[in-house]
Design a protein that fits this description.
Blueprint: H1 2-26, H2 36-42, H3 58-76, H4 80-83, E1 84-87, H5 119-144, H6 158-175, E2 189-192, H7 207-219, H8 237-259, E3 261-263, E4 272-274, H9 277-284, H10 293-313, H11 315-318, H12 329-348, H13 363-383, H14 390-411, H15 430-470
Antiparallel strand pairs: 1-2, 3-4
Length: 471
């Protein structure tokens, strides 16, 4: 009995310490040969430069984001207005039939029950149900009624209604860079972005590669793999910008997957989500990426500046929104104050991306180039419906919609040079606003994570240095 008690006591002391040591060392960078530390540092070699075609120092963006924007946007997207979004994750892939649905548990997305939603969302659902019932009732009555002789038929034929609907879609398409989901569709559901965070799910090659290959090879302006597109690339600014936006988005997603990686538990302990420096350096190490990894990281700052500029430009419009969710009056007021606070930082930034440099020159050529830009980006948003992992599909749709909304803000022509937007001319849906803030929050988080991975390398260097001194 004494031996058992002694063994139990020993296990009780050693096991928690062993688990703590496992968790403490789990997220450390562990390069194999000593020289790999230098290679890891090479990932960041371009982050002491200016953002291509923007003239803004990357270190300035780091300070702005990590100390001012990131804490604010991270708290903001936890609030009710921004955490719920209505999307259709069941749309059919338009490009290929083998959508390779992921069966892993971490790929699954759980939709919201109506009773879990704030009041404003439940009201929207009820109003939509009432409208659908009314339409069905009117249609049924219309079939039963007959027009008396000489009665003026003020109703519209199905062909006329479709023509008006097509005209509205055409008008919207002139501004939109995305193909938005139909929120009234039976398969569209409210999803909680906080309860379904973006992280590594295990969804990977070959199907994941097929998605990105289709984006780069078929929807960028040049038939290419994931090339770098530095400022020296011999192509026009619009085409360079398109590539950098896609590359920056791809980079951001890869950083998220590396920062929230699933580490398998030991000794019957649960799995742990946390950073995986080895995964990060595998994705951006110059030696493993044909020297392109550092430029990919740099492209992240390009898309960040584009979306930051969009927030600044649309600020007067957003400041007129109520951001009503309905769970609590105090939270709604806090949300509005937090939005205004964030927008103030965005508008006072002095080194914005200048969208007026794009689509200039010959008006006919510029219009044609912009239309091609829109078509290609809309195709990318459609490709998100081909992603086999539901959680990856959710965040792919949110982030491409965020970028598409940013492009709509910058290039619709309905916001003046003084950033004045009127609701008569310019409209954003609630889904677009939610996506815009959540997509920008993802970019902000990626830039903050880069600093964390840098620190991981720095600690590793110090550890090796101390070991060498001891020797």
């Amino acid at each position: 009995m004494k031996l058992w008690l002694g063994t139990g006591l020993l296990v009780g002391i050693i096991l928690p310490n062993l688990i703590f040591a496992f968790e403490a060392s789990l997220f450390d960078f562990k390069p194999k040969p000593k020289e790999d530390i230098g290679n890891a540092e090479d990932c960041f070699c371009k982050l002491n430069e200016e953002v291509d075609d923007c003239g803004c120092k990357i270190e300035l963006i780091d300070r702005l984001n990590n100390y001012q924007i990131h804490p604010r946007i991270n708290a903001l997207v936890q609030k009710d207005y921004f955490r719920f979004i209505k999307l259709n994750l069941n749309k059919i892939c338009q490009f290929w039939s083998d959508d390779a649905r992921c069966s892993l548990k971490d790929c699954h997305v759980k939709a919201c029950n109506q009773e879990d939603l704030p009041a404003s969302f439940r009201n929207i659902i009820n109003q939509q149900e009432i409208q659908i019932k009314k339409i069905k009732k009117d249609q049924a009555q219309g079939c039963e009624q007959t027009n008396p002789l000489g009665h003026i038929n003020s109703s519209l034929s199905d062909e006329s209604l479709k023509a008006f609907e097509d005209m509205k879609k055409y008008d919207d398409a002139q501004d939109n860079f995305c193909e938005p989901d139909d929120e009234t569709h039976a398969q569209a559901e409210y999803l909680d972005l906080v309860l379904n965070p973006e992280r590594f799910t295990g969804y990977k090659a070959p199907h994941a590669h097929k998605i990105w290959n289709s984006i780069y090879r078929e929807n960028c302006f040049e038939n290419t793999d994931r090339v770098a597109y530095g400022p020296e690339k011999n192509t026009c600014l619009e085409k360079r910008s398109f590539y950098r936006l896609v590359s920056g988005l791809h980079t951001s997603i890869n950083i998220h997957l590396s920062a929230r990686f699933l580490h398998k538990g030991v000794l019957d302990q649960p799995d742990v989500w946390g950073p995986n420096p080895e995964e990060f350096f595998k994705r951006f190490d110059p030696e493993k990426t044909n020297g392109l990894g550092p430029q990919w990281l740099k492209n992240l700052y390009f898309i960040y500046l584009v979306e930051l500029r969009a927030l600044a430009k649309v600020a007067p419009y957003l400041e007129k929104e109520t951001f009503y969710a309905g769970r609590s009056q105090q939270e709604d007021e806090d949300t509005k104050k937090a939005v205004v606070d964030l927008l103030k930082i965005a508008t006072t930034f002095q080194h914005h991306f200048n969208e007026t440099n794009l689509f200039r020159g010959n008006p006919i050529e510029a219009k044609k180039l912009k239309e091609e830009f829109q078509i290609k980006f809309r195709n990318i948003t459609r490709i998100m419906d081909c992603v086999g992992c539901d959680k990856c599909r959710l965040w792919g749709k949110v982030q491409t919609l965020a970028l598409g909304t940013s492009l709509k803000i910058l290039f619709s022509g309905k916001i003046s040079s003084e950033n004045q937007a009127t609701k008569n001319l310019f409209q954003l849906s609630r889904t677009e606003i939610v996506a815009l803030f959540n997509g920008f929050a993802r970019l902000s988080n990626s830039i903050a994570e880069i600093e964390n991975f840098r620190e991981s390398v720095s600690k590793c260097k110090s550890k090796f240095k101390d070991q060498n001194l001891e020797l």
